[in-house]
Every structure is written in C-alpha cells, then in structure tokens.
Write a structure and sequence with these properties.
Number of strands: 0
Order of helices and strands: HHHHHHHHHHHHH
Structural class: mainly alpha
Number of domains: 1
Subcellular location: Cell membrane
Main location: membrane
InterPro entries: ABC_transp_permease (IPR001851)
Strand content: under 5%
CATH architecture: Orthogonal Bundle
Number of helices: 13
Protein name: ABC transporter permease
Helix content: over 70%
Membrane topology: Multi-pass membrane protein
C-alpha cells in the first residue's frame, strides 16, 4: 500500500508541468492558433525561474518571473504569426529553437547548483488521514494550482461568454469579426496565456521537480504537451488524464530501473513517450468525436477586413 500511495503521489507530481503547458496550449489552439514553441517557452521559464531564485527574490516572484518570461517569448511568436502573418508552423519551430538557446545562455552560470525547492504543504488534519492524506494532501502549492487551472480553463471555455467567443473565433474568425469580436486581440491574449502557462510548467521543473537547472531539462515535455492537446481532442479532462498517464509511465520507468529490469535503459527511458502516444492515439480513433472539438481555423492566417 505504501508503494502504491507513493507512486500515485509521484505520478501527479511528474504530470504537473505537462498539465500547465498542455492547458495553456489548449486555450491557444481553441482560438485557432497553433504554437509549436512550447518546448522553448518551458525552457525559458525554467531558466528564468532559477535565475530569479538565485537573484534572491522570494520563490513566488521567481515563479512569476518564469511565467512572465514565457509570456514575453510567446509574444514574439504572436507578433510573427498574428501581425505579420508568418507561417505558424515555422514561427513555432523557430520559437522552440530560440528558447533552447536563450535558456542555455541564461542558465550557463548555474551549472547543477541545487535550488531550495518549494516545499509541500502540511494541511492540518487532512495530511494525517490514512491513505488519502499522503496521496492527496501533501503536495506543494503548484500541484494544487494545476488542479485549479484545470477547473478554471474548463469553466472558461464551456461556461463563460468570453470562452464561447474564443471558441467561435477558433471556428470561424471571419464570422466572429463580422459580429464584432476583436479576433486578433483575443488571439494575442490566448497566446500570452499559453506562454505564461508554459513558463509555469518550466518553473515547476527547475524549482520543484528537479530542483536545479540542467540544459534542455524539459526532455521533450513541450512536444508531449503539444501531442496531448491534439490526441485528447481538445478536451481539458482528456488533457489532464493524458498528463497523468505520462507521469505514471515516467514513474514506472524509474521503478523498473530501480528494481533492475533487464530491459535496455534506453528502452525504459523511451517507455513514457511511447506509451502515452500509443494510448492517446487509440483514444482519438473516434474521428467523429474529435471533429466536434477541432478548431476549424487552426493555424490558418486571418487578416481583418474593413
């Protein structure tokens, strides 16, 4: 039972950076914009979070600095893709490469210096509950924030007027513009939100999960987050479950190495990525269900007329 409890808790922790990044990209894509630069924005957030921490600011401001860095990086993409109408695929890939370079430059002086990680909360009474206490009530504040962001994004997209307008823009920006919605402005805000969330995911890696700075420490999580959004059919709950799946496979891979499985270490390291993609592909085989939530104008340029 203790092993099961520790594995469930470790799964949720390992999935948290993916939850942040994928929920942010979900909102971006619902607006009709495709940003492939999640990996770069996560790396920038991770590097600037560590930089702010070693600059001596409180941890909450280090997290905010990481979010701001991710948001600024996303603005570069937004200017190219939305204002100058550059190809969104090319602009996103450029941002991913740019983010890797910038993060390596910012983090070059930190090496592998440990960070004073954000500590888990000790919730009175709840933390002491048998089974549920260590499984649900002994996480750091950012894990609980990921749950809150899942709820907030779900309510925003499906229970708010602004969320309905954003989805309408993702479906048909010309019609949305004709009835008075500020298409470009709302897409800018969506892209900025996605950048902030990717930066937050990166900050979680460097300030909580690792916690230290290592070059290219995201290890492909930005690309997994991008895949989660598509294979989850642009539904927040499936994004959350997919992130937990990846986190669970990551923990199983570590457990396999710990108990000395005879499989090659390279195969065990690839297992979380392979299993996540295979399961999500199987989930997304229902083309009719996927078509219901697919943003029709995804990655298509839009220029207001008149």
């Amino acid at each position: 039972m203790d092993l099961l409890i520790s594995m469930v808790a470790a799964t949720i922790i390992a999935a948290t950076p993916l939850v942040f990044a994928a929920l942010g990209e979900l909102v971006v894509e619902k607006s009709g914009v495709l940003n492939l630069g999640i990996e770069g924005m996560m790396l920038i957030g991770a590097a600037f979070g560590v930089w702010a921490h070693f600059a001596g600011v409180p941890m909450v401001f280090a997290v905010l600095a990481a979010m701001l860095a991710g948001m600024i990086a996303s603005l570069l993409f937004a200017v190219l893709a939305l204002t100058f109408m550059a190809n969104q695929y090319a602009a996103g890939l450029a941002l991913a490469i740019f983010g890797a370079g910038v993060s390596a430059f910012v983090g070059r002086g930190f090496g592998s210096t440990p960070v004073a990680a954000i500590r888990p909360l000790d919730i009175p009474l709840l933390s002491d509950l048998p089974v549920l206490g260590p499984m649900l009530f002994r996480f750091d504040p950012l894990v609980y924030l990921s749950f809150a962001m899942f709820a907030a994004v779900s309510l925003f997209l499906y229970r708010s007027k602004t969320g309905l307008a954003l989805r309408a823009i993702g479906e048909n920006p010309d019609s949305a513009h004709a009835i008075g919605y500020p298409v470009i402005r709302m897409r800018y805000l969506a892209v900025m939100f996605g950048g902030a969330m990717a930066g937050l995911g990166g900050a979680y890696l460097s300030l909580v999960y690792t916690p230290l700075w290592v070059e290219n420490m995201t290890a492909g999580r930005g690309w997994i987050a991008l895949a989660l959004v598509v294979f989850a059919a642009w539904r927040p709950l499936r994004v959350l479950l997919g992130a937990w799946l990846f986190g669970g496979m990551t923990i199983l891979q570590l457990q396999g190495q710990a108990i000395g499985l005879t499989l090659p270490s390279e195969l065990l390291s690839a297992l979380p990525y392979l299993a996540t993609i295979v399961v999500l592909v199987l989930i997304s085989r229902n083309r009719e269900a996927m078509a219901l939530d697919f943003p029709v104008s995804l990655a298509k340029p839009f220029r207001p007329k008149g």
